[in-house]
Each structure stands twice: as structure tokens, then as C-alpha cells.
Amino acid sequence: MKIVLDCYGGDNSPLAMIQGAADALAECPDLELILTGNEAEIKAELAKLQFSDEKRLEIVHAPEVITNDDVPTDAIRQKRESSMVKAFEIAKERQDVVGMVTVGSTGAALTGGTLKLGRIRGIRRPALAPVLPTVKGGWVCLIDCGANVDCKPEFLEQFALMGSSYMRAIYGMENPRVALVSNGVEDKKGNELVHAAFPLLAALPINFVGNMEAREALSGEYDVLVCDGFVGNVLLKSVEGSIGALMKLLKGALKSNFRSKMGGLLIKPALKKMMKSLGYGEWAAAAFLGCNKLLAKAHGNADAKQIKIGLMQVKAMAEGQLTERITAEMEKL
Amino acid sequence: MKIVLDCYGGDNSPLAMIQGAADALAECPDLELILTGNEAEIKAELAKLQFSDEKRLEIVHAPEVITNDDVPTDAIRQKRESSMVKAFEIAKERQDVVGMVTVGSTGAALTGGTLKLGRIRGIRRPALAPVLPTVKGGWVCLIDCGANVDCKPEFLEQFALMGSSYMRAIYGMENPRVALVSNGVEDKKGNELVHAAFPLLAALPINFVGNMEAREALSGEYDVLVCDGFVGNVLLKSVEGSIGALMKLLKGALKSNFRSKMGGLLIKPALKKMMKSLGYGEWAAAAFLGCNKLLAKAHGNADAKQIKIGLMQVKAMAEGQLTERITAEMEKL
User: Fold this and answer.
1) Does residue A244 belong to the interface with chain B, where contact is any CB pair within 8 Å?
2) Shortest CA distance to A297 belongs to which of A3, A1, A2, A6?
3) pLDDT for B163-179, tens place per residue?
């Protein structure tokens, strides 16, 4: 199985990508990678790692880098020698490549996904779908999380279908519980968009469980949360912000006096374990669902471990035949 | 100063309301209250409390109760003998009454506010505005938080104006920092509604600081967060849900082994203090801004302390001349 890795545009580029690539190759004997970026730099780093499995790793030279300051559409159209555009072109053109991983600008990645990889037949808008940890130790998919800020009801219908296929493909869930993010659980709750989308989701061949409240996002009672990209963005960032705020307050509280400091030392291992369970451990990258080839967008500050996980994630999506599933679902519609 | 208190429709009705009323009267010598609800029950409870300051407390008999199962508009129109409708009528008709507090059905309270109290001249939609604690120990107002799920840009313009007036009135803030909830801080970020509202807010005589991300909701960098009621509801519930989820995980972690249990005992006081700082301590009720009389909606499960705070909150709004401020701002527009 062949995957492209865009090695530039991240905070830890290209070191983390190269280390992550080497680790993924070591772990998966059936994996082959194509790295895009500055060839000399990549080769030098590989030499430092004493990497020798060169048959399974190809480097495609791409001297330019797309940054967060670039206007996404301009960058994708004009920076033809960038590591991201090269990665998109390889993913699109080479039959044997299943997909790609990038840490670069989210805007450029989404634009490139749509323009370069193309949409699966019938898909109106590809959508960004991160997977969040739940308090029950499971995972929940949030779709869309920012790619499409203004949505038509039909977009949400397709998000529901793609999100359900995604959780089936990567977690082997038989019947993911799909819910619409709303301002209450009752069927009548919602804004105009939710009201219009509700009957469309209810008519899909998925396990649609109705409206849900953002309060329950991490409860583990749902497997796929469907919303427009604006609401998804607010939900995700509210969750991240609140957890960050509470941890900050907790750290302050644990330093407030001698007694608390002692207590803090004692609970440190348990606290660390808890935070780990809340981290973006498994499937750290957000999948951009609905394109003709698989695309995973890792955090801009992803480290080698997260890159390795991103590559495994694309591999899992390919093995779960995600694109084929979504294509088949769209044909049935 | 005279305030009406709807004594029914809450989880702890009417006991918590009666105790809260007595406490508020004891604390504020210039306060007078009108309680609506079952007169015999209220009198019996007052007798148990050995309440004697009867000159400052009037009871208006109202045998019916509006529940969460009632359809709000129907309930407000048809349950004319309910404690909530009676409270609305007293607040509207009596010149010397500045406003009211209710713990009853949110839907009925908002409907009643708009239909019974009437809107301030020029206000298109009254809005629900809870105040949340920030990590810096301050407070931030979220407006609208669920009253208006589908909004026009002009509604958001008025929410900004009302939110700013509110924070000036109750906290004496000179120049509250007002931001639009968006999917990024850049001016260009946002959905169609945010794009259209941005120039309207920028033209207001308020301290509009641009777009903000939900991640920063509790950061203390903003004083008023403006959004439609659907997004506000998702934001608030995401925050509440995340904090709840993390506390649940934390409790589990503190019980996971002997070492953590010991640590947990040591940090308990600091943890309690921290949670208290995050609680809805000051101004626990959500103000429903934009009506001709002041209206505070307390949590359905409010206890006596929160009822007392709700009454003080309406008092603070009246002393801060909130209605007059909003009226003046609207006339200037």
C-alpha cells in the first residue's frame, strides 16, 4: 500500500515527518511511502536516522512550501513546486497511491483536496472530520468541523453518510449512532438548517438517532455528530478551550499551598494518564472525507508519533475501503 | 425597589424561592417583593421561616403552574392563573415594579417576556444573556444563548449593543470588549451571518474588537460574546459538557489507586475552591435583555442562594439603569 506524505508546512517540518515516516515503515511491512519536499534535506535527515529501506521510500523533490500566510486557492494554483501541491498531484495521478497526509495549511489542504483530488461522484462538499475521545474511552466523529461554514441541508445529509461510513471503516463499528447537533434533543429543536436536514438524515440507510445537545458531545452516547462547519468549529474549539481552561485552573489550584502541592505530586501519574486518554491518541489527524483519494490533515504542530499515526490512519481508511463505501452509498442515494 | 418572584415551576419550588426571597429582603433594606403562586402554601412556608417583615412582601395568589411539558406560547396565552403569567402581568402593569425573576420553563419565560412585557422600542428580538466565569476570575456575557436560533445580521447588532450595556450596568465596566463568535479571529472569517453582521457591529458606538474563536470564550480576553442563539447554545453546552466530562474523569483518576486517593484528599479543598470559582456564583441567572421590564431566568434547579442572587441581579440591573441605557442606545441608532 502506497501513501504520500507532504513533509513541509508544519511546525516540526521536515524532521518529524521523516522520523514518523521511518517509524511507520518499520511498523508496517506492507507500507510504501512517497515523501515530497526538499530532496537534499530529506536525504540528509534519512542518513542521520541510518534509514536503509530505500526500496519502500521514494522522494519527490519539491522546493516550495505553502504557509499559513498563503491564500489557499492562490497557493494551490500557483505554488506548483510546493511539497503540498506535488503530494496532491502524485495522490491524484498514481493509481497505486491510496491517499496522502499533510500537516500544512488547513485552508490549502481542503482547497487542494477538492480541486486536485476531486470529489467522489455525487458528493457536493467534502468535509473535515476529526475524531474526539469520549469519557467512556471511545471515540466520536465530528463532521463538518470547518471546511464548509455555510451549508445546505443536502450537505449535512452527505456528512451523515460519510461520517457513518468513516466510523464503520476505521473502527469496524457495525451501526454508528449518528446525531444532528442541535439546541435540544427533541425532534422539533433546531435552526432552519437542522429542521430541513432532519428528515433527510432520517431517510438515510444509517442509524440516525435524532438531535443531540453539545453538552453530550464527549459523553460516548453518540458516534457521529453532524453539523455545518461553523457550528462544528465552535463546538470543537469550545471543548478544547474549556479543557485547556480547566487544566490551567487545576494547575494553579495544585500550586496554591503546601498541602495542595503534596497532593499534586501524589496524583501526578493518574493525572497524566487521564490527560493521555483525552489526547488525540488514536487517529490524531482529521480526515477530509469525500475526495477521490484519501486525505488526512494532521495538526500543524504534529510530532513524529502523530505523523506515524496519520499514516496508519490513511492505511486503516484504505483497508476499510472507505472510498468504495462512500461511492457505493452515493450510488444508492 | 419592587421585584416580582415567580415561586413555581422550578425543581425546588416553592421552598427555595421563599427562602431566597426572605434572605434577599434581610440583606437589602430597600427591597420589596411580590411572590406569585399558591398563597396558602407560600404563607405556610413563610410561617415556618418565622418571617415577619410582611410589609415588604406581598403574595399574589396564582394556583396554576407552567411546566416544561407545556407548549410555551399556549401556556402563556391560556394558563392565565399560573404563577408565571401572574408575575408577567404584575411586572408589566405596576409602574413601581422594576422586573421579575422566574425559574420556570425557559421557553415560556422567553415567550412571556416578549409577549407580556413587550420589547423596548426598536428592539427586534430580546436575547438570553448568561454570564460565564473566566479563568482570570472575571466574567463574560454570552448573547444570544438560545432565544433566537435563526438570526438576521441586525439582530446580532442589537445583541452587541444590549450585551455591552448589560456589562456596563451590572459590573460598571467602562468599555466592555465585544466580539463576534466566529471560526477564526481574522476579519474575513465567519459564515454569511457573521460576514454581514461584522460591519454593523464595527459601526456601533461600542468597543467592538472583531471576531473571536470559541477556544477563547473563557480566557478573559473578551467581555461580551455575540452570536445567534443556536451557536450560543452549542457554545455554552460544549463548555458545560467539557467541564463536566473532565471533572468526571478527574474524579475517576483520583480514585484509581491508593496513592491517587491520598493525593485526592490533600487537594480536595483547593479543588473545591476552584470549582466554586467556575460556578455560577455571581449573577447566576440569565438576563433576558430587550424587554420593557427586567427579566432574569434562573436555573430550573436553582436553590435559595441562587434565587437570592437572581433577585439581587435584577436589583443591580435596575440600579445600573439598564432599560434606560438600552432605550437611549436604540434611540441613537
Assistant:
1) yes
2) A6
3) 999 999 999 999 999 99
